[in-house]
Amino acid sequence: MEYKTLSNGIKMPVLGYGVYQVTKEEAERCVSDALEVGYRSIDTAQSYFNEEEVGNAIAKSGIARSNIFLTTKVWIEHYGYDSCKASVEESLKKLKTDYIDLMLLHQPFGDAYGAWRALEEFYEKGILKAIGISNFYADRMVEFASFNRIKPMVNQVECHPFNQQIEAKKWNDKYGIQLEAWAPFGEGRGGLFENPVLKEIAAAHGKSTAQVMLRWHLQRGIVVIPKSTHKERMAENLNVFDFTLTAEEMAKITALDTATSSFFSHQDPAMVEWFVKMVEERKKQQNSSKEKKAW
Questions:
Q1: What is the model's pTM?
Q2: For position 124, which CATH number holds?
Q3: What residues form the annotated binding site?
Q4: Of the candidates 88, 101, 222, 291, which lies 20 to 30 Å from 14 by C-alpha distance?
Q5: In a domain? residue 149
Q6: Tens digit of pLDDT for each residue in 216-225?
Q7: How many domains would you assign to the chain?
C-alpha cells in the first residue's frame, strides 16, 4: 500500500474501503471481507448507520488496531460544540475503539465552527489523530481553513472523471489539505463504466475501467475509498499498483471533465433546504424514540 502524509505528519493509505450505502445487515460481512483481501483503511460515517457493524468487523478481524486507518464523520444534526463532543464519544463506543484516525465534518452547513472546536479539542488530546471536512467547496474550504485555529487536514469531496475538481484541487493543495474522493466511480452515472475512452485505456493495460479510474485518481494525488459488496471486486479495486497511465492517457481522461456534479450541488438553495428538512425529520424521530423509551 502507498500512503499520503497529511499536514500533521499522519500517514493515510491512498486507497481504502468505503461503506456508504452498505446496509447494517451487510456492513460487518463487507468490512470483514475488505480487511481479509488487504484493505487497511475503512471509511464510515454517523449518517450511514453502520458504525457499530464496522466496529464489530474490526474487533473480530484479529488485525491490530494500529494497522487500520479508521475514518468516520460527524453528521449535521450533531453540529455545535456540545452536540459534536457527545457524538464523537458515541462514535468511539460504536466503533469499539479509544481513538479515531480521521474524523470529518460531513457537510458544510449548520454550526460547523462550534463542531470544529470540539474536534480540535479531541485532536489535541490524541483521541482524533487527524481532523478534516467533507463536501466543502473551495470557497468554504478557504474560509474554514483561515478562520479556525487548526486547519483541516483532509477534504472529502465528490470526484470522478465527469467531475474532476480541478480548480478545487488547486485550492486544497495551496492550503495543504489532502483531497479525498467519494464516489470515485461516480456510481457509474452517465455510463461511466462503459465510457469508450476509459474502455480503450483499460484494454491497453489489461485492466477494468474501474481500475483505470482508481489509477487516474491516485496519479493525481487524490485518496480514494471505492465501495463494493462483492469480495472479488474489492480485491480488483485494490489491484491498481502494478500499472501506470501515460501522460497521454491522463490527458484523455481530463478531457472527459464536465465540472458538474453527478449528484447535487451544495450551493443549490433547494438542496440546502432538503438537508435542513432531513435534519428536522431525524430530530423528530429521535425525540419520538426517547419518548417511547421513557414511556
A1: 0.95
A2: 3.20.20.100
A3: 106
A4: 88
A5: yes
A6: 999 999 999 9
A7: 1
Whether 215 is covered by a domain: the verdict is: yes
Q: Which of 48, 113, 123, 137 is catalytic?
A: 48
CA–CA distance, 286 with 109 (Å, rounded to integer): 20
Binding-site residue ranges for substrate: 106
- The region that residue 102 occupies, defined by phi over 0 for left and psi between -120 and 50 for alpha, beta otherwise, is beta
For residue 88, is it within any domain?
yes
For residue 289, what pLDDT band results from cuts at 50, 70 and 90? low
Quick check: is 48 catalytic? Answer: yes
Residue range(s) defining the domain that contains residue 36: 12-263
